[in-house]
């Protein structure tokens, strides 16, 4: 086999492997959509129907109309409150913190960065008990603020570690030029550094939002009032109470992932560019 033929063979081989892996990863999402369009008997039919024989939207209509049994609209509202607040707090704090860690000689800076990295490795369940005690003590237990602050403890370290690489990649001469032109450090950060790191900041916005939107454990632990639960906890509630009605549970899941899919479709270019740039520059 010639070198050219061998190269073409491996190229086709890795394409096939990539397509197979993509289909395996996407099959659960497809199955959820497919089951949401079936009746209960069609879902449990043997042999299974890989395509809905008689597609219908009954499960979606039930989800959106029967708000007392399936409060999905209220769950979406709760998710937006938690996600947007998590995003706002995380991006503001992590942007300033990452700039400081990248530009200033701070005592113990390497230890701080190491602790941020360790926090990303620890399972979130380790923080439940201390967070519960703190939130109970300060009086924010069973409020939106409890899961918001808990999600920020995950989103902020991630954003700092990512954004720091962007600020490190910007030459220090840019800071010096800004100071010569009359800017102080804050003005330089606001008017020059943030626009230059805008791609990374967009990625931070997206992932901070998704950290808050995808949370179930914090909300379920720190909020007792089911009327304040987000959509992820609502899915848990639906399956727990009405586990037999899988078509409705699958419809709930499809509606829940729709905002995430929409965000990735709209922001795909920025997300890919931001993550790739951060990896190269870091």
From TrEMBL:
Domain of life: Bacteria
SUPFAM superfamilies the UniProt entry points to: MetI-like
Subcellular location: Cell membrane
Primary location recorded for the protein, binned into one broad class: membrane
Keyword Transport assigned: yes
Cellular component GO terms, alphabetical: plasma membrane
InterPro entries: BP-dep_ABC_trans_perm, MetI-like, MetI-like_sf
ABC transmembrane type-1 domain span: 76-267
Chain segments annotated as transmembrane: 12-33, 80-99, 111-129, 144-163, 201-223, 249-267
Protein name, entry field: Carbohydrate ABC transporter membrane protein 2 (CUT1 family)
Species per Swiss-Prot/TrEMBL record: Harryflintia acetispora
High-level lineage: Bacteria, Bacillati, Bacillota, Clostridia, Eubacteriales
């Amino acid at each position: 086999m010639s070198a050219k033929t061998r190269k073409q063979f491996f190229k086709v081989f890795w394409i096939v492997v990539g397509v197979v892996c993509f289909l395996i990863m996407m099959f659960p999402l497809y199955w959820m959509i497919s089951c949401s369009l079936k009746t209960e008997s069609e879902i449990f039919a043997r042999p299974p129907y890989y395509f809905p024989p008689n597609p219908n939207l009954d499960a979606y209509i039930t989800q959106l109309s029967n708000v007392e049994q399936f409060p999905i609209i209220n769950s979406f509202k709760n998710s937006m409150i938690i996600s947007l607040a998590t995003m706002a707090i995380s991006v503001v704090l992590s942007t300033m913190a990452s700039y400081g860690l990248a530009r200033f000689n701070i005592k113990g800076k390497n230890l701080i960065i190491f602790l941020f990295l360790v926090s990303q490795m620890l399972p979130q369940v380790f923080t439940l008990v201390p967070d519960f005690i703190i939130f109970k003590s300060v009086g924010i237990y069973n409020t939106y603020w409890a899961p918001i602050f808990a999600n920020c403890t995950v989103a902020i370290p991630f954003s700092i570690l990512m954004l720091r690489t962007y600020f490190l990649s910007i030459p220090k001469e840019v800071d010096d030029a800004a100071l010569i032109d009359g800017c102080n450090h804050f003005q330089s950060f606001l008017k020059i550094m943030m626009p230059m790191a805008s791609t990374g900041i967009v990625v931070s916005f997206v992932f901070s939002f998704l950290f808050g939107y995808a949370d179930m454990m914090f909300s379920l632990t720190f909020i007792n009032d089911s009327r304040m639960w987000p959509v992820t906890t609502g899915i848990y509630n639906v399956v727990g109470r009405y586990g037999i009605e899988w078509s409705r549970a699958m419809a709930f899941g499809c509606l829940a992932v729709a905002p995430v899919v929409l965000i990735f479709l709209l922001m795909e270019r920025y997300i890919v560019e931001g993550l790739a740039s951060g990896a190269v520059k870091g």
